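Entry 14. Structure prediction run on the chain below.
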Amino acid sequence: MSDNTTPEDHPARSGATPHGTPPDLTGHLPGRQGAARGEARVRDGREEEEVRDRSRLRAPIVYEIIRRDGEDEMDRPLTSLWWSGVAAGLSIGFSPLSEALLRSHLPDTDWRPLIDNFGYAVGFLIVIMARQQLFTENTIAAVLPICANPTRRAFAKMLRLWSTVFVANIVGAMLFAAFLVCTGVLSEEMMTALTGLSEEALSPGPLELVIRGVAAGWLIASVVWILPSAENSRTLVIVLITYLIGLGEFAHVIAGSVEASVLILQGTVSIGHSVFAFLLPTLVGNILGGTALFTLLAYGQVHHELED
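Output returned:
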């Protein structure tokens, strides 16, 4: 009697699987069980998804995340950029303030900077986690779209973003400094510590500030590049890298503007000295470190992997 059954009636006999799903033949190959030699066998889709979730993001994926974020920011309305920039300028003031608060409660010893510079991370933590517009953070986010599409329109949009956010940041920083100096909110010890930090920030010469600004710009840009892969470690990444900026006495143009504004309001330095001896050199250094160095090198490592 002939067997009139079809392969679908006996999937085990034919090697086929129900519903026409191709069989997993890899388990029959010598030395492997559902995977290539040397690979662990992933049993189901859930495990495959877990492997993908735990894998590090490839550099082109990180690039694309930041590029799209930069395009979104450049397309935002001018008023949104302005108020977000003012908020960032106010928030970044908590960096020198927190550092001054810690310093005022610590003895004047060689190890004091190891502790009080953790306060420098507070303002950056607020700004970045709250998604506020900080000029140095935008150096990489706004430049990557231009690297991919270097047109006049894209360049104009970048300048619009940079100029709006920078001015708004400075306004916010000055308002924060005015609050600290004019309201008497700080005790005499705390104000003395803040004044000392401000004098230290403005003490280097212009060339030294450019160099220190390059280091700060590079570190802030590295935060932007690392965060897409950081997942649950974002706070730790922000704190550690910005702590290094404070500990290394690197120059950040917006955080330093709070300190410069404190001295201006106290009558210690003039506006001209703050602008030409601190603001402009630090600005140049931050742009060089965050844009000319980090951003272009970051783009250089992935541009051969990008689609035309």
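Confidence is low (pLDDT under 50) at residues 10-33.
Filed with the rest of this week's runs.
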